[in-house]
Amino acid sequence: MGKVYVFDHPLIQHKLTYIRDVSTGTKEFRELTDEVATLMAFEITRDLQLEEVTINTPVGPAQSSVIAGKKLGIVPILRAGLGMVEGILDLIPTAKVGHVGLYRDPETFQPVEYYVKLPKDIEERDLIVVDPMLATGGSAVEAINSLKTRGARNIKLMCLIAAPEGVAQVQQDHPDVDIYLAALDEKLNEKGYIVPGLGDAGDRLFGTK
Ligand code: PRP
Ligand code: URA
């Protein structure tokens, strides 16, 4: 079963509080989401492999470490996942970005796929699927299905906030996928929203309703 990591770094928790706050406007919501994505990317890349290289410092030769040429990919689930991409690219500027477009039917909560565009060498890349919200888990499960169908093998899922129901669904359907969160909330309400959550992530990011 996939592991679940909740990043309790004080900066992440502090910024998440303002992301949740209903009085936070679109501009600030966007900026904070970006910043939290950067901080989460810092934590999630902790296990990147290093290799030794020889360099010359002004004082003389030295053995030092660089990241071993691992190919990374970021896959936002549209729309709201887009809000986390730039923040990750600030740390990993060479990562390729794929897109999976899904929306959740408001009546059935079932994900509906409308767009997929991925890097060609998807099967060679370590992928981070990003979406601010993991609610029922339907969208994340479907996005990961879509990636696996196209050959992806190494996948991590990174979300700001999850409900226990969504975590359980991903663990059941994709036991090979670890989940990285800023918060694990209490439950879903009858409309499928995470409680207390942050409301509709896409609408808050893009100023729609
Ligand atoms: C939201 C969110 C997730 C999904 C989570 O997207 O960004 O993709 O809901 O819900 P689930 O876990 O129950 O599937 P939404 O469908 O609102 O689309 P949007 O990003 O285009 O606003
Ligand atoms: N999608 C959102 O944007 N927010 C939720 O709380 C659940 C699904």
UniProtKB/TrEMBL annotation:
Residues 6-208 form the Phosphoribosyltransferase domain. Binds 1 Mg(2+) ion per subunit. The magnesium is bound as Mg-PRPP. Its EC number is 2.4.2.9. InterPro entries: PRTase-like, PRTase_dom, Upp_B, UPRT, UPRTase/APRTase. Gene3D superfamilies: 3.40.50.2020. 5-phospho-alpha-D-ribose 1-diphosphate binds at R79, R104, D131, P132, M133, L134, A135, T136, G137, G138, S139, D200. SUPFAM superfamilies: PRTase-like. The keyword Nucleotide-binding applies. It catalyses: UMP + diphosphate = 5-phospho-alpha-D-ribose 1-diphosphate + uracil. Keywords: Allosteric enzyme, Glycosyltransferase, GTP-binding, Magnesium, Nucleotide-binding, Transferase. Uracil binds at I194, G199, D200, A201. Allosterically activated by GTP. CDD domains: PRTases_typeI. GO terms for molecular function: uracil phosphoribosyltransferase activity. It comes from the Bacteria. Pathway: Pyrimidine metabolism; UMP biosynthesis via salvage pathway; UMP from uracil: step 1/1. Belongs to the UPRTase family. Catalyzes the conversion of uracil and 5-phospho-alpha-D-ribose 1-diphosphate (PRPP) to UMP and diphosphate. This is Uracil phosphoribosyltransferase. It comes from Geomicrobium sediminis.
